[in-house]
Amino acid sequence: MRFINDDRKSIFRKPRRPCPFFRRGGGKKHPLTQVSKQKLAVIGLGSVGKAVKHTFDFFYDTVDGYDIDGRGNWENVLHSDISFICVSTPESEDGHLDCSNVDNVLCRLSASGYSGICVIKSTVSVGFTDASTKKYSNLRIVYMPEFLREKSNFTWFVNPDRLVISGEIADMDKVIELFWWVDDVGESVPILKMKNIEAEIGKLAHNARIAVLVSFTNEIESACMEYEADSDNVMSVIHADRRVNSKEHLKPKLGGYGGKCVPKDTKELIVSMKNPILLTAAEERNRITLERD
Ligand SMILES: NC(=O)c1ccc[n+]([C@@H]2O[C@H](COP(=O)([O-])OP(=O)(O)OC[C@H]3O[C@@H](n4cnc5c(N)ncnc54)[C@H](O)[C@@H]3O)[C@@H](O)[C@H]2O)c1
């Protein structure tokens, strides 16, 4: 099957040819024949599923795709050794992710007595994976959240920054083995094995951090507009700090912020602005943290 996607350009049209998307190893077969013979399936062929399927097509002989919209064949999925569930999980009315599509797929796999590993790539709500593992006790469920960027889905899936995975150790190892092409996997690209709940919160926290940073930038931009300040100049003051590129403020057990300058300078900006929603929230978050500690 050929997928149309500008990001992929012509690179993925000819499987098993050297490919500039891969930092290394493009077009190679896995040295362990046993692994390259694994039958894989991808369920849900949207942005994520397309990237997963087309990348695996490049390295593995049998990669079947299935989508509820009519593409692919469900029977083939049932004959796979490992299936990747990439179905949509939209926001529901109460704000939680609606994981009913994932549940629907797991229910069908369970009812068919599927014996392969079910890798959930969809983003799921907190606690969903443990609940599903309990509910479908005949399935081997692994959670492996995806961090690709929609605009460059193939490039990001092929060259991830980390592999996050949770589930039974033997199943996690089998899944991780499939990603042998990733440059420096286990070294500069860490394999982060953890509990289901940690992988779920980790995935969400990654996006929440982006949300907070973007909102922070927007809030500073608002302050700049109020005072006719050039926002590029203002942000360049922040960009130049060595802590911006470090993990210094992203490590747990930091406690609340304090010291001579951060609290009073933040306050000054709050009281100088018309609508400092995020900074006020940061101040409140800090008050609660200091009380807690
Ligand atoms: N798009 C991204 O950049 C991105 C990045 C990381 C994670 N994710 C997560 O990955 C998941 C998939 O995202 P997407 O952007 O590929 O979604 P999408 O809407 O582009 O594609 C989802 C596909 O799943 C299919 N589908 C829905 N229910 C199904 C079912 N029961 N059986 C088979 N197929 C079914 C739909 O027909 C659709 O083709 C979501 O949970 C999303 O939050 C997305």
TrEMBL record:
Transmembrane segments: none annotated. It comes from the Archaea. GO terms for molecular function: NAD binding; oxidoreductase activity, acting on the CH-OH group of donors, NAD or NADP as acceptor. Residues 198-275 form the UDP-glucose/GDP-mannose dehydrogenase dimerisation domain. Signal peptide: none annotated. Residues 76-168 form the UDP-glucose/GDP-mannose dehydrogenase N-terminal domain. Belongs to the UDP-glucose/GDP-mannose dehydrogenase family. This is Uncharacterized protein. It comes from Methanimicrococcus stummii.
